[in-house]
Design brief:
Elements: E1 27-35, E2 63-66, H1 80-87, E3 91-95, H2 115-127, E4 131-132, E5 135-136, E6 138-142, E7 152-164, E8 171-180, E9 184-190, E10 195-200, E11 207-213, H3 220-236, E12 247-254, E13 261-264, H4 272-296, H5 311-324, E14 330-331, H6 342-349, E15 353-359, H7 381-390, E16 398-399, H8 410-420, E17 427-433, H9 435-451, E18 459-466, E19 469-480, E20 487-489, E21 496-497, H10 500-508, H11 514-521, H12 528-536, H13 540-547, H14 552-561, H15 567-578, H16 587-593, H17 601-610, H18 618-631, H19 633-639, H20 644-655, H21 660-674
Parallel strand pairs: 3-10, 13-18
Antiparallel strand pairs: 1-11, 1-12, 2-3, 4-7, 5-21, 6-7, 6-20, 7-8, 8-11, 9-10, 12-13, 14-15, 15-17, 16-17, 18-19
Helix pairs in contact: 3-4, 7-9, 12-14, 14-15, 18-20, 18-21, 20-21
Amino acid sequence: MAESHFPEPEGDVADAEALNADQLGFMCGIEVHQQLATGKLHSRQPGDLYDVTIETLPEDWPRFSRRLRAARGEGGKIDIAARFETQRNRSFEYVQSPNSGLIELDEQPPLCHDESALDIALTTSALLDAKPVSLLQTMRKTVVDGSNTSGFQRTTLISTGGILQTSSEPVGISVLCLEEDSARKLDTFATELGECVIYNLDRLGLPLIEIATEPDVKTPEHAKETSIALGRTLRQTRRVRRGLGSIRQDLNVSIACGDRIEIKGCQDLDWIPRIIKLEMARQLHFYRLANTLRNQLSLPNLPSDRRLDDEKIEAHVREMVAQALPLELIDVTDKFANCDSKMVVNGLQKSYTMLALPLPGLAGKIGTKQLDAKGSQLPRLGRELAGAAKLAGVKGVFHSDELPAYGIENNNIESVRKALKLSDEDGFVLCLAPLWQAKLALESVLLRARVAWHRIPQEVRNVVIKKGAPADGTTTPMRPLPGGARMYPETDIPTQIIASQKWQSIVDNLPMTDAQRHKRMNQYDVSTDQKEQILARELDDTFVEYLDGLPAKAWAAVLLENDTVDPRLSSLVLSVKEAGEITREAINDVIAHYHGQMPESSDIIAYAEQHGLKPANESELSDIIAAVVAERLEFVKERGMGAIGPLMGVVMQQAGAADGKAVSALLRQAIQDATK
């Protein structure tokens, strides 16, 4: 056997911040999924998203119920993640939003790629110096969690082999794909036969660019830098969606003594280093626990480098652990007849069964809740067992290391231990649920418990979210890590050649860089704050296109105050103001009145006359100002130019519709004349 490249891992699991990435053999790659600002990828439906919840769903939106089953991939095998989802016995209800039709319902074949979405994907490929494939072959990626009505997601490889420049060092780009986004989950509720999940179809089919990096990320902090650089590159196209949920990062993390874990739900980039460090600590903890448990059964230790695993040894360990931890489920409902726990009482009133699973040799190894110095939960086997149970649809389980608790008393525990014939070294897990669900949950718990003697399982995990933000940076299991078996060709979409002329046209017309955009904005007479806001909100192209002789500062102000309005309307209203037909103060009111319309200048002028929004002429203003200054001459002489503020309100009240800038200039001159 070759000598391990990595020594025995060092570090304190309770101090994730101090873990040494190099010493632990840290590896990390990032996947980013970015929604594009186009219509849907394969249906030509608009890309609208509807701000609805399960409580506010319109009653006239149709609903459809489905069950999904896993299909075999191109190699004839059913993917492990698909098989897992099938075992969960879930049903699905789909809400048909106004922007979803027969294709979203999987009742009609898909159309070819949206051309705009394909152009954006190719443009991003060019920005990353990636090499486009010569032929687009759409693939079906098996997804049976209900988020796709068809049971698969359509994905097309666009390019490979790019380079992303980060502030530290370059990161290789493995692949760039164009794919469909999934439906949005609205609610989950329990039925007698299993969970039912309700999805909204408004997001289903939106085009996503998926970019996967090589495992070139060197440190947790570098992962954050890489995510920022990926987002910046995508936004450079100015054709991607902005806002919460429009871009999603997945982290692929491992250390030498652990294995690859895909972490989803990393919305807040500032949390990425912390999430990764906690995953490193989790993998280190379970490597050490595995060797502790192996020693109990006189089994060979795991190597400190997963590349040195011996399959014969691991097969022998699996056999021994299966014998040590058999599947033995025992009904102990009667042991809780007099239990005062509210959870137990409520469950028994629903005729739930309290099922018990013995875990020989695991007393004290399941663990109890403890926090590190930063308030994050330390890794423990009990949390992994609970996560496995929750995937079966139960809210949780009780395990022996944490009891007595939750209203379960010592007498209940002793009754269970006696019924299970346990020694002091043995642990157990309890599940209170409908019998079929309790069995499924505890079978999942047993399988995860057996894995504790091995390296951590490859799986997809989700960041624990609380009130819209990471709770503490820890994660929970979602499903096994999918493999290549879930991919097979899409037969309804013909292949498409990427002609060299098309690629050259993309390369010759790349969007401006950030530096070029800053340089362009520096040419205009706008304030520094206006420039930065326009660039940050990606309004600079609009600013330049519709400036058209308008005062730059005024146009910048109007654009920033009305950035959700058609810029043609905003620029037209400003031009009418510059012609002296409406007051400066009336601009936003006029824009709001015509929002969604495109009037003529004459319409705006007529509206201003009708509503008293035309500015008073200069001679009328001069007379009003002269009268105001004369009435308050002593105050003016006392305060000098300090009288401008108080008198502005008086003049504006008497003048009615008036341009504040013109009033200020005339008032300043009148005060100067009065105080000579």
